[in-house]
Amino acid sequence: SNMKRAVRHRTLSVITMGIMLVSFCPFALRAQFRLAATDTIQIYGSNDFPPYEFIDDNGQPAGFNVDIMKALMHDLALPYKITSVKWASVLQAYKEGKADIIMGMSYSPERAKTYRFGLSYASIYQNSIYRQGTSSFRTFEQLRGKKVMIEKGDLLEDLARNKGLSKEIILINNFDSALHALSNGAADALLCSRDVARFFIDKEHINNLELKDLEVFPKEYGYAVRNSHLLTAMDGAL
What we know:
Elements: H1 2-24, H2 26-33, E1 41-46, E2 48-49, E3 53-55, E4 61-62, H3 64-75, E5 80-85, H4 87-95, E6 101-106, E7 117-124, E8 126-131, E9 148-151, H5 155-162, E10 169-172, H6 175-183, E11 189-193, H7 194-204, E12 209-213, E13 219-225, H8 228-237
Helix pairs in contact: 1-8, 2-8
């Protein structure tokens, strides 16, 4: 479609521009988004969104997004620090100016008014998780009057509220305990990324839950960056 061609064209243009900038004038470009040689790029991400970002057994930030950030910062020769906290705290850190980069975030036109998104590197499939033998929940309409768990600040919270869900929503900040609570009958459904749900269901050997794709388009997923020059450089490096 024309839209796909336009997106592809934009992506290629951004990549080409980034490669040219990083190849021909790395020092000039670096000077644009670093106030001083001692500046450390502050990168924030969730501590509970595996396999993309989480805390490993050694207490260190880990996951697909962390690997990408390390590679990009290495490529751009920038000092950086990765901080892994609850998702709501990631958004708060960006709001307060503490975070230069949110390393993984689903795109929406509404969010694009607040956040500057780079190239996406994944598609996040949103799932409804519920107990076997109960109703199959695939739409927000089917969840009316039910107890629905959603991570605080997640794009799914916005989508659910836009679809008229309000009193139904139970905000959570830990997927592991939420899935156990769902398994034990404390709620009717959990809405979250398919990859995240599968990770915890496999890890915790929870065997009475079903996953179904919610009837929403997969969300483009990538980083959000405060500084436009840094964003261009990162897109080029990616």
